[in-house]
Amino acid sequence: MVSSQSHNMQGWFSWICEEDFDLGAPCTGKSIIDLINTVFLITYTLCLLILCLRRQYTSSSNRHREWTPFISSLCCALTGISYLTAGLRTLILKEHKSMNWKWFSCFIRSLVWIVLSVSLIIQPMKLVQKVSLAWWTSFPLLFSAYNVNLLLRHHQNLQILEMLSWPVSLLLLFYSIKLIVRRELHGGEHDLCQPLLSRKSSRKPGFFSLLSFSWLNPLLKLGYSKPLRLNDIPPLYPEDTAQQAYDRFFQVWSAERHSKGKATNLVSSSLFKCYSTELLVTGFYALLKAVTVSASPILLYAFVWYNNLKERELKIGLTLVGLLVAMKLVESLSQRHWFFESRRLGMKMRSALMAAVFEKMLKLSCHGRKRHSAGEVVNYIAVDAYRLGDFPCWFHMAWSLPLQLLLAVGIIFWAVGLGALPGLVPLTILGFANVPFAKFLQDCQAKFMVAQDDRLRATSEALNNMKIIKLQSWEHHFRSMIESLRDVEFEWLSEIQNKKAYGSALYWMSPTVVSTVILAGTAAMGTAPLDASTIFTVLATLRVMSEPMRMLPEVLSMMIQAKVSLDRINTFLLEDEIKEEDVMKNQAQDSSLGIQVRNGSFRWEPDESVPTLKNLNLSINRGEKIAVCGPVGSGKSSLLYAILGEIPKLSGSVEVFGSIAYVSQTSWIQSGTIRDNILYGKPMDRALYDKAIKCSALDKDMDNFDHGDLTEIGQRGLNMSGGQKQRIQLARAVYNDADIYLLDDPFSAVDAHTAAILFHDCVMLALKHKTVILVTHQVEFLTETDRILVMENGRVAQEGTYEELLKAGAAFGKLVNAHQSSIDKLGSLKLENQARAEYTNGDQEIITIQPSKQDSEVEISTKGFSAVQLTEEEETEIGDLGWKPYHDYLQVSKGYSLFVLMILLQLTFMIFHSLSSYWLAVVVQVQHLSKGILIGVYSFFSILSCFFAYSRNLVAAKHGLKASKAFFTSFMDSIFAAPMLFFDSTPVGRILTRASSDLSILDFDIPYSIAFVIAGSIDLITIIVIMASVTWQVVIVAIPVLIIMVFAQRYYVASARELVRINGTTKAPVMNSAAESLLGAVTIRAFGMIDRFIRTNLRLIDTDASLFYYTVGTLEWVLLRVEALQNLTIFTSSLFLVMLPPTVISPGFSGLCLSYALSLSSCQVFLTRFYSNLENYVISVERIKQFMHITPEPSAIIKDRRPPPTWPSEGRIDLQELKVRYHPNAPLVLKGITCAFKAGNKIGVVGRTGSGKTTLISSLFRLVDPSSGKILIDELDICSIGLKDLRMKLSIIPQEATLFRGSIRSNLDPLGLYTDQEIWEALEKCQLKTAISSLPTLLDSAVNDDGQNWSAGQRQLFCLGRVLLCKNRILVLDEATASIDSATDAVLQRVIREEFSNCTVITIAHRVPTVVDSDMVMVLSYGKMVEYDEPSRLIENQSSAFSKLVAEYWSNCRRDSSHSLSSH
Predict the structure, then answer these.
(1) Pseudo-torsion of CA 925, 929, 934, 937, nearest 10°?
(2) Pairwise CA distance, residues 697 & 761, whole Å
(3) Cβ atoms 341, 239 nearer than 8 A
(4) Which of 23, 250, 286, 1341 has its CA 20 to 30 A from that of 1135?
(5) Do residues 1428 and 1235 make contact, with C-beta atoms less than 8 angstroms apart?
(6) What is the pTM of this model?
(7) Per residue in 1111-1162, pLDDT tens?
(8) Contact 287, 400 (CB under 8 A)
(9) Residue 675 CB: number of other CB atoms within 10 A?
(10) Beta 593-602 vs 1416-1421: how paired, if at all?
(11) Any idea what DSSP says for residue 1340?
């Protein structure tokens, strides 16, 4: 039996080796090794199969830190392909007898090496790991022993494949030993993985990890296992941070600015000096890429020449294959690192400039602020600095592409000699044709950008002022205005996109025309034979030339854009800064003085002849309380600005002794929590914090917020009332514990009761020992201050104590008399004596009537409102949404037919393009065919294919334009129809990001990305089909490569998609922070907080930059891998071409195969890049679609329920059990109010802050609909008619006066309904005619953004002018005169009484005299109506809430009134 088995074994070995069985024989040893490898292979495969069937496959930690497994895996794969090629060659040549099965051994060894390659990557469980480790150790040892035995004992030379595979096996052995040693040292699974990226670790990856981008593996693995979050993203390395970038830039910038060089642009010269080393390194990568790409036609020529040889040496062929692999490797690595390092360098430049612009913005002088609007400054960061992120890449293209073009021209001359000369003519013509085309595109782009800026400015303005737009029912007007601006923008967009289609035709036609002329010139001049090597070398060279031809116009355009951006930033950075020397700052201990101004003259505008402030002399002692009063526009706020150093000083001196805290007239609140706004970057001091909260009357607000002082404040304080914002500002100032307090009318936004609390508790008690300058219109507080300054026409008209000024009369007398007249209204009710008697019974009793915050119930509570912040985190989609975003894109645009047409056109293009190449490959072997026919047919097919390429791009452009229009229309319709609650809970930045950057991606990027993905996919398949038609064996490698590539792509996209999504939420905070900080620049400077804001900005920049960094890195990670995989296909194809006998493949098809093979990796990179980009771009579709389906507010017009044209004829308002809540699950804000406002009555609505006054008005205008109950106007339920029909019949002067950018006329009459005469009459009545008549352009005079060139009081007067024009039967005054002095207020109250005598007027006021002369007064308390009666009756009832309000007001005014009476 043993002899039988021995006989069978001998027969088997003789079948394999053609020799008797001998353990010492080389073939026997080799066969034993093959058998052992087969056993390991089967064991490994079975283990994987069992784990899959049991569903126990878990992703183990991979050895991602190391380069060894990846290099080993790649080498094993190449060795496997080599054995496969050798086996196929043996099988095809049939050199041996039928029983010789050496080809089978090659196939087995090929399979072993490929599975070894896989085993180095896939290690799911411990069992598989142990099997693999045993295999990796035993096989190299056996193979090395076999080779040593062969060399020493048998004195035989090693075969080529054995020579190639031995180093690979030793590499495998090295890795296995390394793992074994590590296991022994560290134990457990430490050998298989250490996480590469740690947020706490700054250890840098090794050389090979950097080379192959393997340092990104852990991040990609994490992203594949779960959707990434912001806290999963590792921080930047220190050298990449914004702080480092800015420090380097600022050091060079400062030196450049003070040098006497002649640099026209200091920014660009500073950047070049900062980053010259990095530019040289990236330039070296660009040079390598240009040289290797240009060398590929020479290599193709060599391959075709080799295949043409009748007797070929295999060594030469393998050398050519080796050169091809080396060239592709260098090309791939250089290109990947060029793009990555260029963008990394661009990121540093971008961060440096963003930081520089931000710091400059905080130090900009008033003249600089006027030359650069807020929108422009934000654009310097959002557009110009961002654009420079890609500058290094474009810069290197600007010289490397012309170099590539010159090298290609040289190669053509080398290939065909002087026959190439005629080809230079069309090449030059087509090259120069690109220049006017690029200039035209650039002009269109510039006009598009201008149109886009106009649209975004109008959109931003509308969004920021949506409440007033809805109250006035101006939605249609602003929507139409934005639509008309978009039409202009869309016109230029259409020009750009359609011209790009022409550009693609030019791109495809260039190589066709040039190649035709060169081939014709070569044939005519006979400078080179038109054989396969010549023809395909020319075609390959023209393919190399096509990239520069296509890209150079774009490069030129981008370089011009970069120069424009650099010039804009340079101009901004060279602007004047606030002169710190204008104000001398000393320590508080240095003097008993607080502030001293001597002979001060100040002027806002340099070209004004009259100074804003003149002859200013002030000496304010430490601890003194100074009040500043005066009429609107007299220079009160300018006085504070002069002390802060904000107004340019003409003469005199300003000295400040100690630190300053400043409270602006217009509240400036940051996005963030209430606590953040109060602490303002300082550490928590609980005692001081509680004091600040209490004296600012914020303690009850804190108790009633679900999140207390951690409640999020929306953008610009959108979810806080005006009074709350002002009190937060006061708390911030108190907590700052400064020496000097500058308070600019801080009580205008709060009711009289709260104003009294703030004055007594905050100004007089909490700041008792501080120096305070208080600008105020509340005359009742003046008596308690140490001194009063009366401002008039930019000078201090009067100065002294209250008693001194009252005796002097003049300007101060006017203010007091106006205030006294309002107090006399109380006397007219015969209650003056009673009120005076009640509050003159001694000090003890006076103390008891001091305003108290504890004399009421609880405030309207927000408790129970789902415990979420009003401004929630931005919603983002998570995970793979599959085809849904693409389906949405096609569905919204109704573009399915165009999409199918695009695919058909691309297929047709590729058919004709391939036919042209196939024609050359076939007929180049035909000796008797005319050269004219050869060139003519080729030209026909090529030009025909160009037509279809142009048609494809034209269809893509049309599809994109159709989608852009559809998305924009739906988006804007949804936004303007959204309820007010949406705008209260959504920061404007989120909406603007979608209206700008996301829409821009829809306009420009998605249409051509879809077209290029279709084109790239079809191109890739076509190339593989053509290669397979020449060497069918390539399919064996190509198909697995495609499968692995699809997996690699999906693996990458899982992380890349989330990175882009997160990046969509990190850019907006940078822009919002810049815009917000610019608005509060004066406050930031006053508090000395510039450095803190700069640090915060640097942190935001780094967060945004880290997303950019890893997005770019992961893209290069996947591109490198797919390129390497396709290079395997190229390697296989070229290996077969050199190893197959000469008669198998003709030179023509050899040239065809190689010419397509050389473009395979670039085609794959093209496809992967655009597919990855498209996956990222389509997120913009998700983001815009989120805001396309907002639940709309009720219809503007209900056709079958339109009120009569004369409605309301009377103006009677009935409230019936009115209950209102802002959210379905929120508590009631109005709790069952029932009352009637008679037609023509004047109704005063009063109540504490938070009592529901503003909600009542919101309900009347249906900004929020009642949850139950009704509001009837002239017996018509307002909820039964359309919103426009309702709001057009109501007039309102809102609490926050709003002006729009434009002219005075457009602000008073935006719909163009009134004549100039009517407008002038309205201006005269609202006290603005004198101011406007003095302007040179009268009604066409400019109104800046938010009306910043008009004072707060003047802005409210403009709003009064609007309602005077409308003349509706119902008028609402929502604290309309809070920012104007008592004298102007008295005049306006008279105008309102006269002009609206027959109208129903509802007044919400903080000043009690404003509502005392009303017909009826409604008192609200915490959502309930506690009183509704005539004011005289309410005052008679001393227990009424209104009587208490009047008593409090009278208490504050008693000293003032007594002085007035005594003077009479």
Answers:
(1) -120
(2) 9
(3) no
(4) 286
(5) yes
(6) 0.72
(7) 889 988 888 888 888 888 888 888 877 777 766 677 777 777 878 887 787 7
(8) yes
(9) 16
(10) unpaired
(11) G
